[in-house]
Amino acid sequence: MTSPVVDIDSVGHDYATRQGVQQVLRSVSIRAYPGEMVCVVGPSGIGKTTLLRIIAGLQRPTYGTVSVAGKVLNGPSDSVGLVFQDYSRSLYPWLSVLDNVGLPLRAGLSRVERLERSRAAIHEVGLDAAEAKRPWELSGGMQQRVAIARAVAYRPAVLLMDEPFASVDAQTRSDLEDLTLRVRDDFGQTVVLITHDVDEAVYLADRIVVLHGSPARVIAEIPVPFGPRDQLETRGGAEFARIRSQVHRLIRFGASEVLTSEEIPCVS
For 249-260, how does the pLDDT look when each residue is reduced to its tens digit (9 = 90+)? Predict the structure, then answer.
């Protein structure tokens, strides 16, 4: 049996508040397998970004463990790449596109290797003609392409994305969604994407994980059966509409929503 690349095992997280301890996540277990795109959805403020920070090793869980590529995380890992929603803050405005992408590669690689990997990643996101430009000379969508290129340039096993397309217009969002699928396929990475956009999750995911409750827990894992995706044909199909409706109901009503036996998803 294939081993998971990401193994989130019974993770819980508490915050200290003036009123006492607030439990945000409770016994969350999620696995993501090689080359899989897993989208995590749930109501606003439920703790999705907290979960992503824990998976990235930026925040320690109160209990439970996170393993990436078979190793338990105790902090940030070279096996994990990150793409955030606020691309403008993640790029250095005084550096060129090429230097921004190559920044994580400065340790352990020669200049020639660094340039080769950086240019390969820039080519992958379609910005060959912009490698000498500064981020402020680019559109928002192009800046997010730079952020994606930088995240994949050092070839991490896992790409984590936190609401990565929330700050761009609808057409750019569609382009970046298709870009993400292509990058995943070309580089063979496992992707865990946090989003509040149900349509985006259904379009991108191989599996959708639904968080609900207070504290948040996994209430459903929904497989998405699409093959190659097309923005018009995939989104216009009856199966897309069925899954979208199912996810919306779970987010709104949680596990109390009445589903037919065929609609009740399994939680592993």
Answer: 999 988 654 344
Q: What are phi and psi of 194, to 5 degrees?
A: -95, 130
Query: Whose structure tokens read 């987010």?
Result: 251
Of the pLDDT bands very low, low, confident and very high (cuts 50, 70, 90), residue 154 is confident
Average pLDDT over residues 175-179: 93
* Cβ count within 10 A of residue 104: 18
Secondary structure element (H or E) that encloses residue 249, with its range: helix 238-253
Residue 41 has pLDDT above 60, yes or no: yes
| Confidence class for position 45, pLDDT limits 50, 70, 90 | confident
Counting other chains too, the contacts that 132-136 makes at CB distance below 8 Å and 24 or more residues apart are: 132/96, 132/97, 132/98, 133/96, 133/97, 134/93, 134/94, 134/95, 134/96, 134/97, 135/88, 135/91, 135/92, 135/93, 135/95, 135/97, 135/100, 136/93
CA distances from 155 to 34, 48, 86, 121 (A): 14, 24, 22, 9
The residue whose two tokens read 């097309």 is 230
User: Residue 119, SS3?
Assistant: helix
Distance between CA atoms of residues 147 and 256, nearest Å: 39
